[in-house]
Amino acid sequence: MSLRLRAVAFAALSVVLHACSSSTMLLESDVPLPDGMTVVRSADLRRDAGTVTGGRFLLAGGVRDAGELLSDTIARFESGGWTVVDSRGGLDLASARLEKGARRAELTIHRRALEPDMSSGMLEVSSVASAQGG
Fold first, then answer.
1. Beta bridge mates, 39
2. pTM of the predicted model, to two decimals?
3. Helix (H, G, I), strand (E, B) or coil at 74
4. Where are the beta strands (DSSP E) in 13-102?
5. Strands 83-89 and 37-48
6. Are 99 and 86 a contacting pair, CB within 8 Å?
7. All structural domains of the chain
């Protein structure tokens, strides 16, 4: 195989891998995912006209600093019109509660200290009324 053909093959493979692993929004909605994390399991998914209105989503991926990753993700939520209700956290554990209209998103990021590339998170989307028990 020629050097040029190898370079083209490598470039094509890189594009495909990047496209498969670079999802930044939950199910093509207005709910951002933390950079480097992907949904590995979901439950109770509810959608209305392309908008995620409910569901629980288990996340997995690399986390170097849970608090920093949460701050970056919150900024993306805010740029999409979400409002921060509460956030807290540090290096190993960080969480936030955000609202947009009648929806609430609760995000928790847990950094695995021994294996940060195998860290986890949980994202739960619900209606504000059901989250308040109403």
1. 59
2. 0.79
3. helix
4. 37-48, 51-61, 83-89, 93-100
5. unpaired
6. no
7. 24-131 (3.30.310)
Q: Among 8, 109, 128, 132, which residue's Cα sits nearest to residue 61? A: 109
Tokens representing 30 are 């207005």
Beta bridge partners of 109: 94, 121
What is the rounded average pLDDT of the residues 25-52? Answer: 92
Q: Supply 71's token pair.
A: 């701050």
Q: How many CB atoms lie under 10 A from the CB of residue 96?
A: 21
Task: Look up residue 93 and give its two tokens.
Answer: 């554990």
- Give the pLDDT confidence of 73-129 residue by residue, as tens digits: 999 999 999 999 999 999 999 999 999 999 999 999 999 999 999 999 999 999 988
